[in-house]
Design a protein that fits this description.
13 helices; Jelly Rolls; 43% helix; alpha+beta; RmlC_Cupin_sf; 5-stranded antiparallel beta sheet
């Protein structure tokens, strides 16, 4: 099982929203603060600047991608005299009743530089970014991955080609491509030395087998002692290590993860609630419904009905272009 793909699949709601933004010199676009949306800005041509309130002003060159895991408010602008720019703007509606540690641990904006621009470090285009991958006074605001790699660059080119041409199956093609692009960005974060929390636990030789066991066998009756056995540690030592690194106790993580899986399955198929309850480790439909309602705010049947009526799927982020 690929845990990264597992997490992204469980958290994303509905389809991906995309738009191509083309602007001349001195244009701006403002994005509001939308916690339920994870968004990205992919520079296609020209240069664009991203300004987060209280954070650094970042310059994107063609091929650079800025990812906003929590939908933080920001402004995108094109410097006067630069000749204009175009960006692909995307939005993922995220199940936000529980922000998975993978997204919670990311900085407000994570920039993946293309290989070409990382070599030049934007010295002729923007203020020097310095020798550290973290920029600005607050390292929690912004991190960079300097080398996007060949696969990311190839994906970027195909996305640009699809969004700028009207061909049959375009929306379906774009949705799949942007899923791959998002996974590529998160993979860069997982491999980064800046990665903390869940991402670092995935590289931990002790905790990684435990996370994999939780994800592969959510229906199993897990206890802290049983999970500690997977880690080959004492019960107390394991619980302390898991909580310190992941940020929540092991059984709390397991319960929340089970509820995310249940929500995904309620959205994606017509299986009876009792069947979904069994799939995520509950022998009692009543106990499952109570746990689900505590986590999601409504019982499973209500959640399914509201999702299919379009209530739980948030609208894509709206933005103002000037």
């Amino acid at each position: 099982m690929d845990l990264l793909d597992d997490v992204v699949g469980a958290l994303r709601l509905g389809r991906v929203h995309t738009a191509l933004w083309v602007v001349e010199d001195n244009g701006t676009a403002d994005w509001p603060d939308t916690a339920h949306v994870a968004g990205f800005r992919l520079a296609v041509a020209g240069q664009a600047q991203i300004d987060l309130s209280g954070g650094p002003v970042l310059t994107l060159a063609p091929g650079d991608l800025a990812f906003f895991p929590r939908g933080s408010a920001h402004r995108v602008s094109v410097p006067p005299g630069s000749g204009g720019a175009s960006l692909i703007c995307g939005a993922y509606d995220i199940e936000d009743t529980w922000r998975h540690p993978l997204l919670a641990d990311l900085p407000d904006v994570y920039v993946v530089r293309s290989q070409a621009t990382s070599g030049r470090r934007h010295e002729a285009q923007a203020p020097p970014l310095g020798g550290s991958p973290s920029v600005g006074t607050d390292p929690d605001v912004h991190h960079e991955h300097r080398e996007g790699g060949a696969s990311t660059r190839a994906l970027t080119q195909v996305v640009v080609d699809e969004i700028t041409r009207s061909r049959p199956g375009r929306d379906t093609m774009l949705g799949s491509l942007l899923d791959l692009l998002m996974l590529s960005v998160l993979r860069a974060w997982l491999s980064s030395s800046d990665a903390t929390g869940w991402a670092s636990a995935l590289r931990d030789p002790v905790l990684a087998p435990v996370l994999r066991a939780m994800h592969e066998r959510p229906e199993q009756v897990w206890t802290v002692a049983g999970l500690a056995t997977e880690a080959a540690m004492s019960r107390s030592g394991f619980a302390r290590r898991f909580t310190d690194i992941v940020g929540v106790p092991p059984l709390e993580y397991l319960t929340r993860w089970r509820m995310q899986l249940a929500a995904q399955r309620l959205r994606s198929d017509d299986a009876p609630v009792r069947s979904i309850a069994a799939q995520v480790g509950y022998t009692s439909e009543f106990a499952f419904s109570r746990a689900f309602a505590r986590n999601q705010g409504v019982p499973p049947a209500t959640y399914r009905r509201r999702y299919r009526d379009g209530v739980t799927t948030k609208a894509a982020t709206t933005f103002t272009v000037t």
